[in-house]
Design goal:
By secondary structure, the protein is α/β, with parallel strands linked by helices. The protein has a domain at 117-129 and 137-373: 3-Layer(aba) Sandwich (Aspartate Aminotransferase, domain 2). It contains 16 helices and twelve strands. It has helices at residues 12-16, 42-45, 81-93, 115-121, 124-127, 139-156, 168-185, 202-209, 227-233, 256-265, 298-301, 364-400, 431-440, 468-487, 506-511, 520-526, and strands spanning 160-162, 192-196, 213-217, 238-244, 269-273, 293-295, 316-318, 330-334, 337-341, 418-420, 447-448, 458-460. The chain has a seven-stranded mixed β-sheet with strand order 1-7-6-5-4-2-3, sandwiched between helices. A three-stranded antiparallel β-sheet has the order 10-12-11. Helix 6 runs parallel beside helix 12 (364-400) and helix 7 crosses helix 8 (202-209). The longest helix has 37 residues, at 364-400. It starts with 11 loop residues before the first helix and ends with a helix. The structure holds pyridoxal-5'-phosphate. Pyridoxal-5'-phosphate binds at residues 107, 167-169, 200, 202, 244, 273, 275-276, 297, 312, 314.
Length: 527
Amino acid sequence: MTAINQSGWKPEMTALRPAQDETDVAGTYTGNKALMLEEPLIFEIGHDGSTGIDLAEAPQVASRLGGLQRNRDIGLPGLSEPEAVRHYTRLSRQNYAIDLGFFPLGSCTMKHNPRLNEKVARMAGFADVHPMQPVETVQGALAVIHQLAHWLITLTGMKAVAMSPKAGAHGELCGILAIRAALTARGDARSVILCPESAHGTNPATAAFAGYQVENIPATSEGRVDLEALKARLGPDIAGVMITNPNTCGLFERDMRAISDAVHAAGGYVYCDGANFNAIVGRVRPGDLGIDAMHINLHKTFSTPHGGGGPGSGPVVLSEALAPFAPLPFVDKDGEHYRLVEEETVGEHHDKTFGRMVAFHGQMGMFTRALAYIMSHGADGLRQVAEDAVLNANYILRSLQDVLDAPFAHSGPCMHEALFSDDGMAEGFSTLDIAKGLIDEGYHPMTVYFPLVVHGAMLIEPTETESKATLDQFIGALRSVAGRAKAGDQSLKSAPHHAPRRRLDETQAARKPVLVWREPEQAVAAE
Ligand SMILES: *Cc1c(COP(=O)(O)O)cnc(C)c1O
């Protein structure tokens, strides 16, 4: 590595990031553009011999690793404390966050998280509990889990809830394992799970992971499950169906009751992907629709900062038919005392459990946030959540359908998200250009190219927490960008122009990710 000065910065670093093309802003000495701060990789600025802390010389003791000791430097970058702090703070400022602006990512429910929930989750009695503590010392935490379970059962009209799954997809697995256990218990192993074309990708993945064959059910021209096609495929090999409702086209599956009846009549079970529960909470009880299992994404409907991989929590509500197979452990109440039902304590009424999803009890931080959210909204407030989420999505749909193709606008009101396609753009312009143009306007793009049933899909979920003014500004920005794509404005093809990074080669990034830092000289030599 070339010589570096004490601060870790090297003069040639600016040259590592030359202007990328003639439309790029003329380079500054530092590479910074005012408060938009450039930041190299930590391996580019780190250097040996620097550290944020002074440790006493390690005592010379005999190795307990029996010859397995490290025989070469592992190459961790050394930085002083302010260098390390600034590195991560600078990187964090290149991130987009719900606290910075409107986050229209469809299917993800990126909404404002009330600070009250954060305050509650940080209370020592909840934040510092340990899963191995004696139950007498965590009665309050168990009460939170029990009360939240009660709310979830009440809101969904179901019989039981498994609280421990740690995300939506994990909840799907829990539900499918309960279905499999129920089928096994009656000696009727079945091999196929049906998923509609518009299913969220995690649904077929979960069914395949659990060992089922996955088959598609087509959608109607309205964007809903084709009931007749589904009925035609039902038979003794169908373990169940997995249906997202509201579905990924943003539509409510109006035939849900008929779907459930048909599947039950054929001996199968109905799994509902309830990640989008915020569109119907307080208005529809999935239990009334004949659903056997449904996960709820606490980190979507019931608030918790998420994105970037976590944290999540995906409790699964279960019907009477599946409740006996629910996983351990769970919280039960004897009089005023909360207790844990685990393998050793499981009574006769629950000896059919299929096992465990996780080592302990699930995501305590998410439970406290969700219960705080639910209690601060109350039953009427939760109902309003659904109404406002749907109102906001319909406002987006109807405000943009004259400039963007809305393939299911004729199917009636949408639920929590509005779906558009890239039909009608100028030759050579597509959804990707619109998404990149939105970055220049200061927005995280909407979900793109999903669901797959629509060409060049753009899926926008405004959520209930956005004001009309916020939506109007976004609608204005999207109208402007869509107008440019329709007019064939070439500058849009190279957007974003104002972001820290210009348009990246996404195919190359996905197919040939550079996961190991190489010296610049080597990197050049390797090409
Ligand atoms: C988010 C989502 C999931 C997956 O949830 P994770 O917590 O990310 O595993 C599944 N289905 C739908 C419809 C979703 O929106």
